[in-house]
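Morning. Coffee machine broken again, so started the prediction first thing and wrote up yesterday's gels while waiting. Chain of 166 residues, entered below exactly as on the submission form.
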Amino acid sequence: MPNCSVVSKSWSELTTTDLYSFLKLRTDVFFLEQRINETELDWRDSEEATRHFWVADAAGAAAYLRVLVDDAPTHHDAAHIIGRVVVREDRRGEGLAQVLIAEVLQQYGHLPFVLHAQEYVAPLYAKFGFLPAGDVFEEAGMPHLTMYRAAVTPADPGSEPTTLSA
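Came back before lunch.
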């Protein structure tokens, strides 16, 4: 994985430049490149519990993801959700998404997580202990897979999550 700095901020800590940078990245990839025609700005970005993670370079945000926290678990015991994982086209293949996921799990790995992976990206999340939880489904016009990662206690960092059914 590359050596790079991860920025992590809550909504109230973001500058307008931060916000513009990662929203531009998300819209460039999700709307222009992937042609997703669903609402991107869902107000979840501005929730107090949401945490934004990104890697920036001279051109702006190079990679981004957000961590949402639901009031109640959305899958098994997971109330924390990784979403909007995106890497700018010119920086793909450098491991930036892995850097961001590793940072999230370093901070929150003691908690269970769920995410909706675009099916072709599922192997990336599997490297971090995420396991399929159900069948492939369509979301935003693309095949997705719900993936779950059990909490890992600090006393047992090498524990292996088990496969769960939906």
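The first strand starts at residue 7 and ends at 10. Going to sketch it on the whiteboard this afternoon.
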